[in-house]
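Rather than argue in generalities, we have chosen a single entry, letters for residues, whole numbers for local backbone shapes, without further comment.
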Amino acid sequence: MNFRHPRAAVVAIWGLVVAFAVTQVIAWIVLGGPSRPAVFIVQFVTAWVLILVLGIVSTQRIGGLNRTITQHEQARTATLDQVEQLEIRNAILQIISRSVDVPLAFQALAQRIVRLVPCDRVGLALLSDDGKEFQTYTARVNLVERRARPRPDVVFKAERTALGAVVRSREPLIIDDTSVGAADFLDINVLHTAALGSALILPLVAKGRAVGTLNVVSRQTGAFNQQHIDALLPVAEIFAVAYVAQHLQIAMGKYQTMEAMSELTLSIASEINSALQTIIGHCDLLERGYPDPDLQRDLATVVRQAQRITTLLERMRVAAQERLKEMADAVNQGGIPSSPEAYGKAEIS
């Protein structure tokens, strides 16, 4: 009998009530009415059977309702978590669209990250260009402790740190007890000294390269699990892309500045070289028209210095072109498209 639907349960219950009434009537007629004790025994047994059946039906129905409510509650919680993650990603994108400043975006979004993963502090560690050390930033979730603008806290070397281990492996790391890893990693020792019990470290990976880590720490031990990793991985990916975009924007700005300076240098060098050639030509004419030895000696000095300046200008021109080529190569390696066609290729890849 299926009692998962309310209508079926109602029909079953009222059917049993009617059956009980019919059974009573039959027993009353067949067994001779109230003058015989057997009638009461049959009624008593029938009543208890009906009560037990109704108890089983009610139990099944309540269990089904409980399972349904639990499923709906789990689905609601999962939906709220997804909405929270989407809100955080949208907030990150909005902040980054206004200013490609990853530490500032991190400071602004710390409270949202805490709503995803309950913790006491949120950290961001950015790897230096040479890959040898981390610049760390800390956002304290207590509003009283929050800072108006982020500033670097501690510089850690990549060696003998959990941050370096995560960057090298590109895999998240859960440290359930900082007292266990304090002897092996310098940064975990710092957390343990600050009375922080556990930590979760996620790599910031963009274009196959780890550029830093996103860290959450708690004063309690064993505060983090795989569910927290799944919640923070999308946030870490966005931070990684934003950090790479920040570096590319800086590189692009340097390239544009260098390009403008090189063009100005080449233009000025061309003008100066043209004037020097004119000076050298006039000195040659004066040397031929006036055979005075003193004058020729002075003219020769002027020509030599002019030629020297010409050589220096050529060196400046070559150096500017080489530097411009180096910047262009760096921009190209960073993946900055140089044309609309290049944008299309970048999207396809």
